[in-house]
Amino acid sequence: MTIRTEFPYPVTETPDLWIPLADGTRLVARLWMPEGAGPVPAVLEFLPYRRRDGTTARDALTHPYLAGHGYACLRVDMRGNGDSDGLMEDEYSAQELADACEVISWIAAQDWCSGNVGMMGISWGGFNSLQVAALQPPALKAIITLCSTVDRYADDIHYKGGCLLNENLGWAGTMWSYSSRPPDPAMRADWREEWLKRLDAQPFLATTWLNHQRRDAYWQHGSVCEDFGAIKAAVMAVGGWGDSYKNAVPQLVENIEGPVRGIVGPWVHKYPHFAVPEPRIGFLQEALRWWDQHLKGVDTGVAEEPAYAAYLMDGVRPATWYATRPGRWVTEAEWPSANIENRVMDLSEQGLGKGAGALDLPLASPQHCGAQGGEFCAIWLGPEMPGDQRADDALSLCFDTAPLPQTDILGAPSLRLKLRADTPAGQVAVRLNHVHPDGASTRISWGVLNLTHHTSHADPQALTPGAEFEITLALDHIAYRLPEGHKLRVAVSSAYWPMIWPAPEATTLTLSEGALTLPVRPTAQGDEITFAEAESAAPLKEETLRPAAHVRRSETDHQTGTVALVIEDDFGKSRNGDHGLIAGSIARERWTIHPDDPLSARGWTHWTQELERDGIRLRTEAVQEMWCDSSHFYLTGRIEAWQDDVLIYERNVEDEVRRDHL
User: Fold this and answer.
1) Consecutive 10-residue averages of pLDDT for the chain (662 residues)
2) 269 is in which domain, residue-wise?
3) Pairing of strands 361-363, 509-521
4) Both 389 and 513 in a single domain?
5) Which of 465, 487, 521 finishes a domain?
6) Where are the alpha helices (DSSP H) in 179-258?
7) Which end of the chain is more exposed for a tag (fewer CB within 10 A), N or C?
């Protein structure tokens, strides 16, 4: 990545800009301005992640660069977070979106703003950029949404295919910790009072989200797929094949009526100018082209670009981390594309695509099947990618092709299955794998389905034991090249731990028929689009006090047979070179299960947050645990606040939630 320090305009910064809301709440922002540019368009990033110690490193790379090219850039802390007033009740609440609309109106009215506003963000900021655009604030003309979703139920960290993702508990633990941190004592004389208010009001989101196990009005709120036509702003959507939020980009390109552009690279959950795996792209240059076109009215040529650009990755050996992914960029003028051939390959006793015929194959995977699935959302730069699938393949029904010619896959594979179950509930997981000549197995794409949801996520129904039913399960979108002479494998299992919470009882499925639909693209000869090399502004100056370290460890208790995944993410501790705040954090998770007992499943999270300022040492400890029986989920939580090693606040939570076809 090339570091730029000289721009068309000198950049001035206001580190602490207070924005008043109509209800008296004040939100605090960091503002970068192009000196001498006159009234300019503005770009808003609206987050709960704290501008002074949360996103400072990535903000330093991004916002000064855009400001230096003629934009006012604002990084605003949402209410109840960082140094802003108020309390936060949930993610993507009506209050959050109303606040964002009010902030946009305030920005547009400032004498330094031209009246045109853009909104940009990754993950949370990508979500609310779409959601705010659907509300049509008059000044919002364009957005750039990265690593986001159009459907909060189907494609976020809570549920997938109607199955409960364990990331639901993991992310609840993250927010239990993140939003309970104090303001910076240098910013507010009432920092301690505000901290105690936050601690008292902190919602236990694990319960909130678990109380909505169906796709109900709670999830419809903020799901822009309910009405794509409500989005009038120009939309640039960016994602990564190594990320969990890869499906939104093609969905937006397909459904947005106005100007839209989609880019998906090989990346995990990061901005593409500093993401891994490489190759990175000049994302900030692409962002400027988008903003110049839609906020300044300058013809930059983006209207003539192909609607969809995807990085077609070469098939490589399985690894839990990649520094780079070889491949090439391919483009489609529109999506869905007439260039894609949907190739149907039947499942048979001989394998995949080797003839058809009736099957009668029982499937009863041990509950720990899925151990090589990796992290649901790879983000922390540790060993989070799916590993060699052979261990999970051994616990699944597998159907292999013969060695194939080179095959380029672009789109969402799907699998049609006819099944019977011997219980009223169950789940199925499907992996599309790349089998190497020596037997190594790389996961290409995957999907899961709660079988009680096979006709509706809004109105699930118990299965009739012994009765046959048919499902079609869409896997995640992907762009992947299978090398010549290698095989494809469809692996089907009845469990996928620790990615999803198990069904209430062990199930035996019987597979009687199946077919894979594979989206195949004509062979790409080379890059069909090129991007500039990655550039950024100067990195944040900070002093490392404790280096980051990431552990992902599997354990087996040879006495009890229980297996566990242990995750330890120490994000390190550092001193900010701009204002001196010291911050650090450590996250720990433990997921345990017995291979023979779905009711033995247990999840535990523990976050530590540290903050130091002028001799004041502040710390929070946030712990959660969840387990179940056949009828209920049980949850506990504890939050502690410490000042100079003295416990000043503690709160315990206990909840139970009835299982609803889950």
Assistant:
1) 96 98 98 96 97 95 98 98 96 98 98 98 98 98 98 97 98 96 96 97 96 98 98 98 97 97 97 97 98 98 96 98 97 97 97 91 98 93 92 98 98 98 98 98 98 98 98 98 98 98 97 98 94 98 96 96 97 96 98 98 98 97 98 98 98 98 98
2) 2-150+228-332
3) antiparallel
4) yes
5) 521
6) 191-201, 205-210, 217-220, 248-255
7) N
